[in-house]
Amino acid sequence: MLPPTPRQSTTRRRIHVAFQVGTLGVVFSLTACGLARGGQSIPEGEEGFLPGEDAGVVGPDVGIDAPLILPPDAEVGEDGQLVDPPPPPPPIVPGCEPTEEVCNGVDDDCNGEVDEVAPLPCPGGGDRYCVAGRFSECPSRCETCMPGTERVCFISYCTYWGVQTCAADGRAFSACREKDAPQVCRSVVNEDGNSPELEQCCLDNGYCCVDEFDLDGDGNKREMIGQCDEVECRN
Amino acid sequence: MSELTRRLGLGMLALFWGTWPADALAQPCGRADVRDTVPPDGATAVPTNATLSALYVRSADYANEEVMLEHVGVDARIPVADFNAAEGILSITPDNLEPGDDFIVTWPRLKGIGSATLGVGAEARFTVGDGPDTERPVFAGLVDVEWDLRRQEDECTDAVEERFVFDLSLGEATDDGGAESLTLVIFQTSGPTVGSGAPEPVYVGRLPEDDEPVRITRTIGDGAGRICFAALVRDLTNEISLGADEETCVRTVKPPFFESCVVAAPSGSRSGGGGAFLSLLVAFAVGARRRQSRRPADGVV
C-alpha cells in the first residue's frame, strides 16, 4: 500500500468531488465548501490526504475542480493507511439545501427522510404526530359523544320532545326518538309546541339539549348545550 | 324439578346458545373492556426498557385501579400506572425487567364513563429479551384500502346504524423490540370533515399479525367522498416510525345505492330456449359497494 498523498489546501473553496458508485456508474457529485468526502470536512488551510494510487486515485497533479474518482469504500486512517469504511452516511439529496426539518411533507434537512420531527404532547394525553405534512389533531376520547349517553332533541309533532342516544362507537347520535316530555315541561309543550320556550325549559331543568333554536346565539343549531358534561367527548 | 326436566332445560339452553348468531349477543353498551395489550400475551424478547400498556375502550374511566406485575419466581409488585384517557391506554414502565426472565402483568377491570358495569381486564405473560429497544421502528405505511357500507344493530341505540367500513392493508413493519409489540396509529387525512385541516386520529391498536387488514369505521358524514388514511407505528419505548407521509385513498359513495334494474319483455314474446320473458340485468358501478385503490392516489382515485 502506498503512503498517502498530501493534498495542499487551496484558496479556492469550491471543490468538486465525484464518487463512482459500484458498477452502476452513477456519479454522485457533491458541491460543498471544504467538503472532502463522506461528510468529512477539511478546514481551509489544513492538509488533507488522499488515498494512494492503488486505491484508484490520481496523484497530486489532480487539479481543483477536477473530478476525483474514489472507490466508495476507500477510507484512510490517521496513519495514512486504508481502513474499513464507517457505516454509510445518510443519503444526501442532490441539489437539496439543508434547512431545519419541519412538518411540511418535505425533506428539509436533505437526509432522504421526510418529516422526521418529534411528536407534540397533548394536554389531555397522547401526542400530535406529523402526518401527511401537517400535525394531527390531539387524540380524543370519542369523536362525537360518550357511548350510551343521551341528549334531548325536539320534534315537530305529537310530544315535541325526544331523545337521541350516542352510539357504541361514540361517532354519532341515533335518530331523535319521540318521548314524553318531563312533567315540568308539559305545559310548555301544550302551549308552545316545538319552540324556543321548550328548549329553554329543557335547559332550565338540567338536561343536555340540542340547540335547535340557537339560544346561545352562536349561529350553531346542531350543537348541544346545557348539562352535557357526561355526553360530550372529553379527556 | 325432575332430573329429566333439568336436563331438557339445559339442553334447550345449549341449543339456544349454539344457534344464536354471535352478532346478536351484543356487549353491554359502553362496557370498558381491554381491547389489546402490548406486549401481547406470550410475547418474547420484550426489551428491558419497555413500557407495558393495555388498550381499553376509549370510554374507560380509570380510578387508580392497581396494575399487578409479577416477576415470575421472584416477586409481585404494583408499579405506578399512567392512564392516557384520550387513547384509553393504561401503562406502566417497570424498572426490573431482567433479561431472560418471565413476567405476568394483570390489567384491571375498569368502568366506563357513566356506567356501573365493570369491563373485562386482561393478563399478559411475556419474556424479556436481551437488552433495550434502541432503534425506531420501520414501517412501510398503508398499502391498500377497500370500503363497504354496513348496517348493524348498535347495542347503545338499539337501532340499526349505518357506517362506512374501511379495510386497510398494512405494509411491513419491523422493530428491534419485536413487531408483535408495535402499536398502530391510523389517521384520516382527507374527507368531508377533515378538509385541509389537521389529520384526525381514528384508530389506535396493536399491530395485527399475519397481514390482517385493519378495519376502520366512519359515519356516513365522515366517510363519504374522497377518503385518505395514513398510519405510523409506535414501539414499546414510544419511538415512532416514519411513513406517515404516505397516504392511501379511496372514493366512496353515499347510500342509498342503486343496485340494478330488470327489464321485462311483453308477455308472449319468445327468447332463446323458449323463455317467456327477456330479462336484462343492468348493474351499475355506482352500486358496486366495494371499491379499492392503491396508493399513491394523490389527487386521482
Q: Any key phrases for this structure?
A:
heterodimer, A: 235 residues, mainly beta, 3-stranded mixed β-sheet, 3-stranded antiparallel β-sheet, 8% helix, B: mainly beta, 5-stranded mixed β-sheet, 4-stranded antiparallel β-sheet, 23 strands, globular, disordered C terminus
Neighbour order of strands in the largest sheet of chain A: 3-2-7
Overall structural class of chain B, as computed from helix and strand content, comes to mainly beta
End-to-end separation of chain B: 67 Å
Number of strands of chain A: 16
- Enumerate the spans of chain B where pLDDT stays under 50 for 5 or more consecutive residues: 13-25, 267-301
- Mean pLDDT, all residues of chain B: 82
Structure write-up:
The complex is a heterodimer of chains A (235) and B (301). In chain A, β8 (120-121) and β9 form a beta hairpin. Chain A has 235 residues and is mainly beta. Chain A is built from two helices and 16 strands. Mean pLDDT of chain A is 72; it is low at 1-69. Mean pLDDT of chain B is 82; it is low at 13-25 and 267-301. In chain B, strands 2-11-9-5-6 form a five-stranded mixed sheet, with no helix packed on it. With 301 residues, chain B is mainly β. Chain B has helices at residues 3-19, 220-223, and strands at 34-38, 43-46, 52-56, 60-61, 68-71, 75-77, 82-84, 89-92, 102-107, 111-112, 122-128, 138-139, 142-153, 160-170, 173-174, 183-190, 200-206, 214-218, 225-234, 248-252, 260-264, 279-283, 292-294. Chain B is built from two helices and 23 strands. Classes of the chains: A mainly beta (235), B mainly beta (301). The A-B interface holds A 105, 113-116, 119, 122, 124-126, 128-143, 146-149, 165-175, 230, 235 and B 27, 29-30, 58-59, 83-89, 112-115, 154-159, 161, 163, 185, 187, 189, 197-201, 204, 217-219, 221-222, 228, 230, 232, 240, 242, 244-245, 247.
